[in-house]
Amino acid sequence: MVRPSLATTGLCLASAALAQAANLRGGIKPNKEAARQRAPEIFNAVHDAMRQWGSSVHHNGMSFFLATVPEGVLFHHGSHQQDTPTAPDWLAYEIEHAELFARARGPPPGPPPGHRDARTSFLLTVFDDYDSTQQVISESPVTSAAGAEGGWLHVYRTTKPLRLLYIDGMSAGKTRMGTLDTQDMLLRGLDPETIDDKVFAKPPKRPMGDIAKKPPRGPMDEEQRAKDLCSLCQDWGLQGVIRMEVGFEIIKCDFSDSLEQVQVLQRPSPHRGSRPRHGLGDLEFIRGIAERYEGIGASRTAIDFSSMVSSFFFSVNLTNPDAERQDLPRLSNTTATDLAAVKTYLTDMIGGRRDEARREVDWQGVSDMIVSRYADRLRFMVEKVVSTKMMLREVKFLLEMFIDHSKEGDSDLSDAVNRCAMFYLQTISRTTEADHMLHTAFTGVTTEICTTLFRVRELVVGEDDDDEGDAGEEEELLETAIQEVQGLLEYLRWARFKRCPACGLDEVCFIPMWPLGTVDEYHNPRCVNSSEPHRGESYWGSFPPRPEADRQANDEL
Ligand SMILES: *[C@@H]1O[C@H](CO)[C@@H](O)[C@H](O)[C@H]1NC(C)=O
Ligand SMILES: *[C@@H]1O[C@H](CO)[C@@H](O)[C@H](O)[C@H]1NC(C)=O
Ligand SMILES: *[C@@H]1O[C@H](CO)[C@@H](O)[C@H](O)[C@H]1NC(C)=O
């Protein structure tokens, strides 16, 4: 328990102690130069946190945050069994997500392979792999005949605030693309060289549908991963971790702690009556998840942004060995010493801040103000503006308020640029080291926006007069101006730039969310309806490796 009067002094002591501890341990430390270089990535990590859309676009998360789930929040748990889990297990934020697992173990219901249409076949194959992933976290043996009975949908309510570690990005996506790097390489310290053998080992060949035989560490290492994460949580005094796949989830280390069961109801047997319309391919399923694109909603989780610890804060090598995906950071080429240093820093941060009264700066709110002012207008400049006059009107609209026309006029605008860059940051007070890193990163982003826009203004400002200038020259100026803004969009890489225009009532804007989605859907997210075939190369790769029997079923596509 922390008394408010102590919390204030505790905070100063904590950050001083933190800096000292890091010094003593001699590891690398967060530094402003790194934050400046990674400014857009840090800005995006804050802006995307606990948001399904942004975390799907920037799916290789590099950051951690302390997070609190308040008392009285409902969570869902789908299982083949009625009993409350006694080992680390999973809670879903959405009903739709938990419903996927509220069924007996076994092959997914529905017609056998060969009698399915291509889309159903594809989705059910993914579903089967996906299902076996989640089920493994549960410890108990399979008692019912596979698929014979309906599973159980559990609902729990938090009876006390939960203190959790949020692992950002698509951190529950079991891929080889880097979504697991912060867990497997940083927190668990697995060697990148042997990770494929350990984590992504091909499961033993098994007869079609027999998923009762569990690999010792669980498919895709999920069982061992949950145990390892919970062992860290125990050291840290936390109750679990928040991750995201197609839906947000918590690995709750102990279901008997701070949870109260609200209801447990059995689902209908899949063999009685028709197959329930709750599968991954179901538009209603995607609709439920898509509701969280812009936030988890209803204050169900508060992130302490001032607790952020990110690999982006450190001068470490985040180069992706995949030359095609330089847009995605990875930890596979980061040295073990550097990874250990970041983990030590994280441990120190948690120790110093875990019990603080919540007094975080709403950095995500600041990012929202910035994104909402500029995002659509910048895209408009690149995609719709057709004359220098039109461009001038746009930049003038955004910049005029920062110019003191009694002094500056068109001459030296450096004060105006500075006013523009610092506008949304001037009310922020910085207490933690994370606050300082975030301030540096956000300033880097806003400075880039403002200097670019003032450059564009300078390019086109002379074009305001009425006399018709040289058309060729104007075209050239416009082209240069558009290129400037285009460069800015590429620097910012805001998830908002990928958002679909409003979709119809029978449609959902779709982007790949593990395990769903195709390569094309990642690069061109669009509104899809319930009869749209999700065909094409899986975005997430051929993963996990499938035993022969299943693969044959898939090859029918
Ligand atoms: C980071 O790692 C990549 C891949 O090993 C390497 O090519 C690059 O030179 C490294 N960058 C730095 C700054 O060390
Ligand atoms: C970078 O990562 C790749 C893939 O994990 C690995 O093959 C390579 O040896 C690494 N290079 C360095 C310098 O760590
Ligand atoms: C679904 O979308 C596709 C492609 O846009 C269209 O051809 C089809 O008619 C739509 N189906 C329904 C039921 O709206």
- What is the count of DSSP helices, taking H or I runs of 4+ residues? 18
Helical fraction equals: 40-55%
Tell me about the largest β-sheet.
Answer: 6 strands, mixed
Q: What is the end-to-end distance?
A: 58 Å
Overall mean pLDDT: 84
Integer-rounded radius of gyration: 25 Å
Q: Give the strand line-up of the largest sheet.
A: 3-7-6-5-1-9
Which distinct ligands sit in these coordinates?
Answer: 2-acetamido-2-deoxy-beta-D-glucopyranose
Q: What is the 3D form?
A: globular
Order of helices and strands: HHHHEEEHHEEHHHEEEHEHHHHHHEHEH
Which consecutive residue ranges, at least 5 long each, have pLDDT under 50? 1-14, 107-147, 273-278, 544-557
- Measured by DSSP, the beta-strand proportion falls in 5-15%
Coarse structural class? alpha+beta
Number of strands: 11
Question: Your description of this structure?
Answer:
The chain is of the alpha+beta class. It contains 18 helices and eleven strands. It starts with a helix and ends with a helix. The model is unreliable at 1-14, 107-147, 273-278 and 544-557 (pLDDT under 50). One 2-acetamido-2-deoxy-beta-D-glucopyranose is lined by residues 192, 321, 332-333.
